[in-house]
Design goal:
single chain; about 230 residues; alpha/beta; 5-stranded parallel sheet; 4-stranded antiparallel sheet
Amino acid sequence: MRLAVLANDTALGVLIAERLKATVRNCVVFNDAANLRRALRRETFDLLLLDEDFALAVDSYLPSASRLALDTTTIVYFASEFAASLPEDDRLVLPSQFEKLERIIASMFDRDSGANGDVEVFGKLRFDLTSMIVTVDGRPVELTAKEFGLALLLMRNRGRPLSRAHIMESVWGRVPDTASRTLDAHISQIRKRLNLRPESGFRLTSVYGFGYLLEVTKPGPAHQAQEIQTPAP
């Protein structure tokens, strides 16, 4: 999981990151909304944990792909208990309510790990999480472990642009090597092997300067894949 924390109190942000380091793969702390906005122009996160002081300062001046990614990202607002006036009891107050935050994160892990079953179905595609076999219309398709993980990640995030770093960390467990074409090669393979084409119900496109987007389409020959253009950061 990738988490971004925007805290008015830098020490609190660092404390949150330290507390969550055992469960969150990547936690980036910001103390300025402008810096977070710059990061969102090229990055995606699974969860944004935002100080209420910045509630209206994040989603402005973002390119279309970044705004779409933000619109489909879980955002949790919190208040610092060090603030002059304490918020209502039903709000997340940190650091005293870390357990509540950990429950939120645990529920996201359950959702993303397929905790409700060993099989996930997306249209004609069926992912068996135990055997790591994908079938298309009942026909098994041979995928490597990385291709399986990449395809499942994209399916679980359909309709949401994912940055290259997000994909690489989720599937390969590392930040992307800018000189490597590993991700692009794997994208090409799963597009071909799973027939991720508009006429088959899915459109897998590159988002220029950002990453990739898998969309659900209405099957038909009239749909043509197009590359999404976003301004350079």
